[in-house]
Write a structure and sequence with these properties.
The radius of gyration is 34 Å and the shape is elongated. By secondary structure, it is of the alpha+beta class. This is Anoctamin.
Length: about 850
């Protein structure tokens, strides 16, 4: 019978939650005997009418016991809800040792005695940011080697019950659960297996390892480490945002895969600090040079901007307007479109390189410290996905392992990949169609807003700009609609991406995640960035000129959008802020709306507490990486238009680290520990975006901002002796004879200040005037500016890429001390193994009762026959 909370039983003495007298309270992580640790828990609700599920559970649990796992079931009458059964699983030493050998899990065999000579200069400055030593380094540093069951005495095994930490134990148990069969067909040649399929068909409702304690208080047992409590206290609380992360404790409790994510996120946040500082300085420079903005002064001037009549920005519904009504937007544009923009674009190209190169070094150090140096080969060869083993009935010989293994025929593989690729292209086409729809909305709604303003009797067109309000309304509403479409398409495509990745039947978990990563990123890239690409590189570039405008879909009445005299950069900034900020608010709001877990007054069992938490899922980290990589794109691809983007990202990430830690520690069940030696395919994606960011920022400075036209005017076309921007506005606007407007293009109404003496209007372009024999053709200044833009792109790209390659060449991916320590450790491992074998041989010889040497070279193959005989003598 189940023991009550106040009942005591005798237990074995030992460390790590195994006291001499053990209280079997409801928060226990042990079987009823108080000795065997619970390594995994399965839950189900018994439906007596469903005999198939009962039979699956019976066969499955019977097979688990045949493998060697020990089970203990809690009846539903003992559960809090009165209807859920809990099957507790314990892996004894023989099972752990066997599968540790199979999985080549590295375990300690000697304390690391290599001196650590790395000293941080002025270490006292980092004291406020440091955590206690027992939190930062919860276990000693050991030399490790892959476990070999036949040589178990070679390793540092003080207590078999605690030799494998809980994270390793639950990883081994899950490996067994994922491959244990629960059904065999009549032919007997194909098993149905795996806990994942049993969860999908409802046979079990959950499968999870246990947390070691409640997060808000330590375990009642003083011998328990209560690592979950330590993580919450020193890591998950928001007020720890200025403290370093206890990455070794995270790795020990959750496994290397989760540990390396938080290491990357923390490193990314640290590097953002430098980008945020420089971006803020560039923004402050634009603010301080506010009064030196000569072209804005001309726009706002009544004598210059007030006397320049601009051509209508749409047909019929829009009317003529004075240039000075764009005064405010011109000043705002200067905050982001100034000389510092060029510097910041170049700086971010170099920053991206430094970020990636220094991360490779940081990652290499973690690989060594966390015993992941040789992990990739193990991942590829040994850990096949259970779904792959189940669905691939064909077998072939693996040349490396010399064992028969399942494989997918090349014809089937190609067909699945083609179907998957076609599906991704279909969804990307859907995104492009939606973007075209938003562009059509922008064109239509601008004319509508202009018409509404004219018909509004409360609006004085002479005082309030008939252009600014429609432009602002169009830009903001289109950006908001685009953001809503982005979120909806994300929700729909997510399921599709998982389905088609499952259909491809990837061989390993790493291959599965990489395939899903590529699909999701391609979709998200187009989904999030397409509107920004439109504003940056297409809007205002194909509008034609008065009397010969370009229309969307050719014959439609939707005239292509123009940029205002201040340029499209300010609108790109608006688009970037709305999408980037909206995404961050959406994610944080989704987190806050999740059900918060309160501290139960009447505590129920440890497994029931964890059962009520959310499942982390195999792709839990995938979405976290995706969110950060999309953010990375915003602060690199379009950063020339918004220098404050790194600052917003930094603030978000400071919160994100603690929010992710809080969710993982308090809201989710304990994930199954998994290994990962890197951030996977995300590293290649970041590298690709780093290269693309140089190109996009060069084009933004050249074609979206007005930096190049201003420089060309200053040095080549000014009509005065002073080196300044006087006369630039008049020089940058072309002239059109309004009598040449067609009937469809003429405005329906005219402002009160318009009179018959006005015969021309101005528009943004570099064309010959109507009285020139080359009227309305591009003039020489246009071609000079175009040549300057192309030259700037070539020079900037070459300079940045040369610096990038030089920096990448100068900074090795693996630190020299880490490379030396890896070689040293491998040498020592071989030496200790050699000494171990020699000592073992001596022991065998000493146990020989007669004087005749009976040993042979087969006992120790690495020794020659002469050496063996010498040892015998």
């Amino acid at each position: 019978s189940r023991l009550d909370g106040d009942q005591w039983i005798e237990g074995e003495k030992g460390s790590a939650c195994r006291p001499g007298l053990y209280s079997q309270d409801k928060d226990s992580v042990f079987f009823r005997d108080g000795v065997r640790r619970i390594d995994f828990v399965l839950s189900y609700i018994d439906d007596k009418d469903d005999q198939r599920k009962q039979e699956r559970r019976r066969v499955y649990e019977s097979n688990l016991q045949k493998v060697g796992l020990e089970l203990e079931t809690e009846d539903k009458t003992e559960s809090e809800d009165g209807k859920t059964y809990f099957v507790k699983i314990h892996a004894p030493w023989e099972v752990l040792a066997t599968y540790a050998d199979v999985l080549k899990i590295k375990v300690p065999f000697k304390v690391n005695d290599i001196p650590d000579n790395s000293e941080i200069p002025m270490n006292w400055l980092s004291t406020p940011f440091r955590l206690p030593e027992h939190i930062m380094n919860p276990e000693p540093d050991y030399f490790t080697a892959p476990f070999n069951k036949s040589k178990s005495d070679f390793f540092l095994i003080e207590d078999k019950e605690t030799f494998f930490p809980p994270s390793t134990r639950n990883r081994i148990v899950y490996y067994i659960l994922a491959r244990c069969p629960y059904f065999k067909d009549e032919c007997g040649d194909r098993d149905k297996k795996g806990i994942k399929r049993l969860l999908n068909n409802g046979t079990y409702t959950a499968a999870f390892p246990l947390h070691d304690s409640r997060y808000w208080t330590k375990s009642k047992d003083p011998n328990c480490e209560s690592e979950r409590f330590n993580l919450y206290k020193y890591w998950a609380k928001f007020f720890c945002f200025f403290k370093e992360q206890p990455l070794n404790l995270v790795r020990k409790y959750y496994g290397e895969k989760i540990g390396i994510y938080f290491a990357w996120l923390g490193f990314y946040t640290e590097m953002l600090f430098f980008a945020a500082v420089v971006g803020t300085i560039c923004f402050v420079y634009g603010f301080l040079t506010y009064d030196d903005n000569e072209w804005s002064k001309e726009i706002c001037s009544e004598e210059i901007g007030g006397n320049i009549v601009m051509c209508p920005l749409c047909d019929q519904k829009c009317t003529y307007w004075r240039l000075n009504i764009t005064c405010n937007s011109s000043w705002q544009s200067h905050l982001f479109d100034n000389v510092a923009t060029v510097f910041f674009a170049i700086f971010m190209g170099i920053w991206v390189t430094l970020f990636l190169e220094f991360w490779k070094r940081r990652q290499a150090r973690l690989e060594y410290e966390w015993d992941l140096v040789d992990f990739e080969e193990e991942q590829q060869q040994l850990q096949l996905r259970p779904e792959y083993e189940t669905k691939c009935t064909n077998r072939k010989l693996n040349r490396i392992t010399q064992e028969m293994e399942p494989y997918l025929p090349i014809t089937s593989k190609c067909a699945r990949i083609c179907l998957s690729g076609a599906t991704v292209l279909l969804w990307i086409s859907l995104i492009i169609a939606c973007i075209i729809g938003v562009i059509a909305y922008r064109l239509a709604v601008y004319a509508s807003f202009a018409s509404i303003m004219k018909n509004n009797t409360a609006t004085n067109l002479d005082v309030v700009a008939p252009y600014v309000t429609p432009q602002l309304a169009t830009s903001v509403t289109a950006s908001c609609i685009n953001f809503v479409i982005i979120m909806i398409l994300n929700l729909l495509y997510e399921r599709v991406a998982i389905k088609i990745t499952d259909m491809e039947i990837p061989k390993t978990h790493l291959e599965y995640e990489n395939k899903l990563t590529v699909k999701m990123f391609l979709f998200q890239f187009v989904n999030y960035y397409s509107s920004c690409f439109y504003v940056a590189f297409f809007k205002g570039k194909f509008v034609g000129y008065p009397g010969n405008y370009t229309y969307m879909f050719g014959s439609s009445k939707l005239r292509n959008e123009e940029c205002e005299p201040g340029g499209c950069l300010i609108e790109l900034t608006t688009q970037l802020v709305i999408v980037m900020t909206g995404k961050q608010v959406w994610v944080q709001a989704s987190t806050c709306t999740r059900k918060a877990r309160s501290h139960p007054e009447s505590l129920y069992s440890r497994w029931e507490q964890d059962y009520d938490l959310q499942g982390f899922g195999q792709l839990g980290l995938f979405y976290e990486y995706l969110e950060m990589v999309i953010q990375f794109g915003f602060i690199t691809l379009f950063v020339a238009s918004f220098p404050l983007a790194p600052l917003l990202a930094l603030i978000n990430n400071i919160i994100e680290v603690r929010v992710d830690a809080w969710k993982l520690t308090t809201q989710f069940r304990r994930p199954v520990a998994a290994k990962a030696h890197s951030i996977g395919a995300w590293e290649e994606i970041l590298g690709g975006m780093a290269v693309l960011s140089v190109v996009t920022n060069a084009f933004i400075v050249a074609f979206t901002s007005d930096m190049i036209p201003r420089l060309v005017y200053m040095y080549a076309y000014r009509t005065h002796d002073e080196l300044n921007m006087k006369g630039y506005i008049n020089n940058s606007l072309s002239v059109f004879n309004i009598s040449q407007f067609t009937l469809e293009e003429r405005p329906e109404e005219y402002p009160s200040w318009f009179n018959s003496s006005i015969t021309t209007c101005r528009y943004r372009d570099y064309r010959y005037p109507p009285d020139d024999k080359k009227r309305y053709e591009h003039n020489m200044q246009f071609w000079h500016i175009l040549a300057a833009k192309l030259a700037f792109i070539i020079i900037m790209e070459h300079v940045v890429f040369m610096v990038k390659f030089f920096v990448a060449w100068m900074i090795p991916d693996v630190p020299s001390d880490v490379r030396a320590r890896v070689k040293r450790e491998r040498y020592l491992v071989q030496e200790y193994l050699h000494n171990y074998e020699v000592e073992k041989l001596k022991i065998q010889l000493s146990q020989n009762s007669n004087n005749e040497c009976t040993c042979t070279p087969m006992i120790y193959p690495s020794l020659s026959k002469h050496e063996v005989l010498s040892e015998c003598l």
